[in-house]
Specification:
InterPro entries: UstE-like. The protein starts with a helix and ends in a 15-residue tail after the last helix. It has two domains: 135 residues, no CATH class; 129 residues, no CATH class. By secondary structure, it is an all-alpha fold. Helix 7 packs antiparallel against helix 9.
Length: 264
């Protein structure tokens, strides 16, 4: 299939899916389902792109589709489990309050923007899957290694945070367990690392340099838009001075040894 047709089909499909999910969230009263759909959408789009590509080594296409689906199932499954046990994410509660009576109309637009970003973030996988070089070469193994490190790191960070939250003695405290001692957002850091895997898979491919926009855009979104800012705002609201001290001593994103805490 022509690459432009692949992209067009992806946009239409995600637009329809997000429209249906917008109707679902309006009935359910929890807009957080979009976070589940975003990650799963990227994974399914990758499978479609890899399967319908008119060029590219077949082994690499299968590999990229498989890795992307494992990533999306892990991420979307984790968020889905949170939706079943926790109230609506504070980010969406804040948006609804700010938007007032126009909240649902604006949420429809928000969901369509997420559809757009799902396709955009699946493009590195599309480019990598069209790499005509025979698999498996050194850069394929580098890509697998980066992917494995990222998935393991993010899974460990999520597990450590979930264990902390499930401990009744930690109510009102800040998680500093394991990876959270070195970064305030180790889960986001390893999510960003994940996108470098597709840069490796696309090594030498036509337009392969465009895959660099994957980690670049992800870093921007995590640090400036949907990741760190709303998460830290909510943490300051719920944990106050304890989180301010955490901010003072701990790197915001890249893991780094913490500073000494201020004496009480």
């Amino acid at each position: 299939m022509n690459v432009w047709l692949q992209i067009a089909v992806g946009f239409v499909a995600m637009g329809v899916v997000m429209s249906l999910l917008w109707l679902y969230q309006a009935r359910r009263g929890d807009a957080g389902v979009v976070d589940v759909a975003w990650g799963m959408g990227v994974g399914l789009l990758t499978v479609f792109f890899a399967a319908s590509a008119s060029q590219g080594d077949e082994t690499r296409r299968v590999l990229i589709a498989s890795l992307a689906m494992v990533w999306s199932l892990r991420l979307s499954g984790y968020i889905f489990r949170r939706l079943q046990t926790l109230p609506e994410d504070g980010r969406y509660q804040t948006l609804k309050e700010a938007w007032g009576s126009s909240a649902q109309v604006r949420l429809f637009g928000f969901y369509q923007v997420q559809a757009f970003w799902s396709v955009l973030f699946a493009l590195p996988m599309l480019i990598a899957s069209r790499n005509p070089a025979p698999a498996m070469q050194w850069f394929d193994y580098v890509g697998i290694g980066i992917w494995a490190i990222a998935i393991c790191g993010e899974s460990i960070a999520d597990w450590q945070l979930a264990r902390f939250r499930n401990d009744p003695t930690t109510s009102g405290k800040v998680c500093r367990d394991g990876l959270w001692q070195y970064s305030r957002h180790p889960n986001y850091f390893f999510e960003w690392v994940h996108w470098w895997a597709y840069v490796a898979f696309a090594w030498g491919a036509p337009w392969g340099w465009l895959t660099l926009f994957g980690p670049a855009f992800m870093l921007f979104f995590l640090l400036k838009v949907t990741g760190v800012p709303p998460t830290e705002k909510q943490a300051l609201k719920s944990r106050g001075d304890a989180y301010r001290e955490y901010q003072r001593t701990t790197s915001v994103f890249f893991p780094w040894p913490p500073k000494e805490e201020t004496a009480a």
